Amino acid sequence: MEHQFIKAKKFFSENLHPKFIYKNVWREQTTALLHGPRNLDKTSFAITIADDIARRGHEVLYVNASGKLGGIQCDTESLYIFNPEFESIDDKTDYADLIFEAIEQAVRTTSIRTFVIDSVTRIAALSFGRNASAAFVMKRLVALQVKCKLSLLVVADHTTKAVNNALIALSEANMLIQNDPARQRFAEPQLGPIGSPRPTFPLDIRVAPLNPATDGGIDSPKFAGPKKSEVTNSGVFHDSLR
Length: 242
Known about the structure:
Layout: H1 8-14, E1 20-22, E2 26-27, E3 31-36, H2 43-55, E4 60-64, E5 79-82, H3 95-109, E6 114-118, H4 120-125, H5 134-148, E7 151-157, H6 161-170, E8 173-176, E9 201-206, H7 212-215, E10 227-231
Parallel strand pairs: 3-7, 3-8, 4-5, 4-6, 6-7
Antiparallel strand pairs: 1-2, 8-9, 9-10
Helix pairs in contact: 5-6
């Protein structure tokens, strides 16, 4: 393999403005994490994001490992669903490996480069060996994303603090769904036709700095931390940076 060495002037001129695939949260060819407590329905948010991206011309493959999709009317031609299935009762393929085979097949045989993985927690729960670790599966996903220049949105349930921190560290941007204590109540989302009226959900979004070299990281005055935001009735995130 011959490695390329690009002049800095050319590199920075081509990468002056980041290309976002969804709002100003998820940047193209990066991994974003959508996570929250296990009892909150993250699938509704994930499929709404996938549909929004597909309607803007991107081909999107939604990996339905959680098995929670259903009752949704969708007429978006560019949105595809993959339901992981074993070939037979004697199939010895590990569940995580089955999903990675499907993603790699999609990359080899189609032009799909945007994937929503729902969810890394479920994949790990149904796998064995090192794949039984959500952090290890996440690391495999990020490695594949970098290798194939993919855009990944990974859904995850909160488990232990160590695993949560590992997943966040592996993603460039993360969207945290949680109850808003100030409201004392939270209406759980219901799956329905995409674009149909939805209740308003309290949502915290934390976004990694776009350029740590210039933004100075999370402790920089330019990064004021997470902003209280909401998902509107149309299921669209408000801007997440202050």
